[in-house]
Amino acid sequence: MKIHTNYQRPIKSALWVVLCFALILVINWLLAPIPFLATIANYIPLHTFLELLSIIVSAMIFGIFWANIPNNKNSRNHLILACSFLGVAILDLLHVLSFPGMPDLITPSSPEKTINFWLMARYLSALSVIIVSMFSWRTLATRLMHWIILTIVLLLLSILITIGLIYPSLLPSTFVEGQGLTSFKIISEYFSAAVYLLVSIKLFYSMRKQQSYDVVNLFIAVCLMSMSQIYFTLYAEMNDSNALLGHIYKVLAYGMVYKSFFISNIVKPYEELSKSRNLLSTIIEAIPMSICWKDSQSRYLGCNTQFAINAGVKSADEIIDKFDSELAWGEQAAIYQLNDQQVISSGVPKLSYEESYISPTGEFFWINKSKAPIHDKNNAVIGMVGIYEDITARRISQEKLQLAASVFTYAKESISITDTDGLILDVNKAFTRMTGYSREEAIGQNPSILHSGRQSARFYADMWKAILNEGYWSGELWNKRKNGDIYIENKTISAVRDKDNNTTHYVALGNDITPMKKYQDQLEHIAHYDLLTDLPNRVLLADRLGQAMLHCKRDGKSLAVVFLDLDGFKAVNDAYGHDVGDELLIALSLRMKDALRESDSLARIGGDEFVAVLTDLAIVEDCKPVLDRLLLAASEPATIGDVIFNVSASIGVTLYPQDNTDADLLMRHADHAMYAAKESGRNRYHFFDTAQDDAVKLQKIYLDAIRYALDNHQFILYYQPKVNMKTGTVIGVEALIRWHHPERGLLSPIEFLPAIENNPMSIEMGEWVIDSALTQIGQWQKMNLNITVSTSVNIAAVQLQQKDFTQRLAALLARHPDVEPRYLELEVLETSALDDVNHVSSTMQACIALGVNFALDDFGTGYSSLTYLRRLPAKLIKIDQSFIRDMLHDADDLAIVEGVITLAKSFKREVIAEGVESIEHGTALLKLGCDLAQGYGIARPMPAEDIPAWINEWKPDNAWKI
Questions:
Q1: Tens of pLDDT along 806-845?
Q2: Residue 638 DSSP SS3
């Protein structure tokens, strides 16, 4: 048999107790009487004390039970036992009063009389335990049942007492003086012991299940009763040791019964009450609300922790016995107390009302309150209980819902809500205004009732694919109203998902953008079309040209950009006004548009300028018929009002991809070609020359490179010595510019100077050369270099012809005050001097006044007259190297050289030959009377730092010593 888990540990202890008492019984039975116990047993007061103790315990059993009647929780079995032990207590009392030597009670006291009352008590006890072992312990006793069972026990008790006192003869003999106990007495004791033993077995067996009474202590009590009865079968005299031990066991047994009653009726209810209170406290603490309860004076009796925190304290104990005014409610305390008193005085609950509340920390809350009166058992109000729920989040949520509902209702956007099957659940007013369907007509329908048929099934499939994959779709839809009108709607459809990310609804927001689209189309037209002629404007032209260029690359064909300007249109405007001019433009634009092919485009880009794009040209000649038609369309007479106008057109044409550039440059190239057509006589077309344009581009690239070189100090000066071949002296040097190119190395002037001829950059470069030469002269002077004559610098024509050349030269000289101007010689090209001899002569005179000298460079190449030579104040004449180079083999060149030398001497000018390549050239020049020379035969141009060493080392050739 398996004992219930609640009894496994207690029953082990109980069995050990029972076993110990049984062992004492066996030992006492088997051994001779113990003298000490026999002595104590003969002590009558002890016997009497034990009897009285058992009587008191029996009475207490009844008293504990009867006192618990108001709780209405007494079980029927406890009632039977309690009443029975009341009878046992009375019978045991009569048993004590009947002892020999006690005063007579109605009849004389005797051993048999006392045993009779003893057996009556034992039978009554045994009868009660056997009855309760047979009945259920869970049956509760009613008030009536209490009195019925008590009455039955008292009646039975009255009968037994009457028999024992008045009619003892009716009872069998139990004691014979001098012989001891009778058989009846012994059998009765054994019978009682057997009954108790059976009941103990029954109690032990009942421990398989949880019982509603203290079964373990009751089990011990019944076992002790059984052993007590056995003791009373063993004694020979009423005061021997067996009788003593029997009384002790009986007192202990009654004590265990009392304990069982105490636990079942006092301890257990108290524990249940404590558990109930703890459970209630736990529940109150677990409730996610603030709860408090007060007495009739609105003084706090208790609260949960949540309420205490809201009141600004840490625990509920700090609130007990306080009023609201003593807490951190502030001005709200009076309102709270007034509400409390209304509930307490009226006895009527005040349920679910809302109030705002500011916490001790200053936070704002909304509270839902309920207050109810607390009644006592007489239904008198003794206080109130309050429940407070923080509904701030709910209020905010409600406000949001109200706001959302207001937005839904009053939004200007059309809003519709559908379920996952696509059926409309609700629509707002804007939807009904936009579509013409009432709310009742729309609900339950599919949004497909709005389909216009302008979108394909593929469009809707892509739309739903986006909604399912991305959660939303946004775009424009062509829809149809209830009356059949088509409108365009800007629509956004979003999936509404729950916390598990499952789609529950779809929400569609839309705006009727039909008017905006119309206006947008108008703006689009205005932005891309000319307002006067309704032809494409420059913006649309650029787009179409770009598209046409892409097609050319893809198809391998050409296109032509045609720039057309009307000849004589300005005169029409001036003579007849702009209104007539506008009508003429409209008429001509229609003609020119008709002259084009279907694939071509014509645009007006401003004034009387038009641009056509001719596409799909297999060869260049394919565009010429169209160009001829355009010329004809522009030149045919046009009648505006009563006036006939005759204008023509000049057309410039460029071809792509032959002119392989971008759209903007194609337009500019066609524009350049148009100006060429005008210069050629108008009323014609001219094709753009890409080779010439490439040259211009190359020139620009070269100019940009020279500009960069000038800004980044890439130019340097080399110096070529000038000598007197006859005397062997160095008379000066000529400064020659070089370009130290980072990639191409050292470049001579012929590779870059022609590019800047007549360009303002040449002036800047010329001034840089003069400034650099003056700086170098100053450095040589500091080195005590003996250069007694000059450093010559070449001056370009555009620089010399500046009106302020003299002033600019003076400024350069002023920057070098340590250099005497006489050491600077300016070489002027004969050809540049001939352009304006008077101005050049005046400029040279002014510069000579500053102290500088002049040389006439490349003499003989400018076809100058003697008058010009006489008027130019040049001190030195340089014979051009083109004559010197071939003078040894070419008689004409020799004659020119000889003539120049003679002419110079006639005008008392010094003469120097440049380009002396050999000793023979020098020898020939000396024979002709020219002592001064420079050239590779003497020295190549060299860096400035090499000049001092060369001067110190140079010696003339022996052949020149004539």
A1: 999 999 999 999 999 999 999 987 665 455 678 888 999 9
A2: strand
Could you tell me the two tokens for 568?
Answer: 């004589």
Nearest one of 224, 214, 228, 203 to 259, comparing CA atoms: 214
pTM of the entire predicted model:
0.40
Q: What confidence score (pLDDT) does residue 331 get?
A: 77
> What is the spatial order of strands in the sheet that 503-512 belongs to?
424-427, 414-419, 503-512, 486-497, 472-480
* 366-394 residues labelled b (16+ CB within 10 A) or e (exposed): bbbbbbbbbeeeeeeeebbbbbbbbbeee
Among 653, 674, 684, smallest CA distance to 561 is for 653
Quote the DSSP letter at residue 354. E
Query: How high is the pLDDT of residue 861?
Result: 63
Centre a 10 Å sphere on the Cβ of residue 171 and count the other Cβ atoms it contains. 17
Q: Which residue has the tokens 């840089």?
A: 768
CA angle 593, 596, 602 (to 5 degrees): 50
Comparison of pLDDT for 813 and 258, the residue scoring more: 813
pLDDT tens sequence across 104-146: 777 777 777 888 888 888 888 888 888 888 888 777 777 788 8
Contact 738, 713 (CB under 8 A): no
Nearest to 672 by CA among 659, 572, 621: 659
Question: CA-based Rg of the chain, rounded to a whole angstrom?
Answer: 69
Cis peptide before 657 (omega within 30 of 0): yes
Nearest to 544 by CA among 561, 530, 531, 558: 561
The structure tokens listed for 35 are 């003298």
User: Could you tell me which of 812, 594, 567 has the C-alpha nearest to residue 681?
Assistant: 567
List pLDDT tens digits, range 641-699.
889 999 999 999 999 998 888 999 999 999 999 999 998 889 999 998 877 666 677 78
Token pair recorded at residue 268: 């257990």
Helix (H, G, I), strand (E, B) or coil at 362: coil
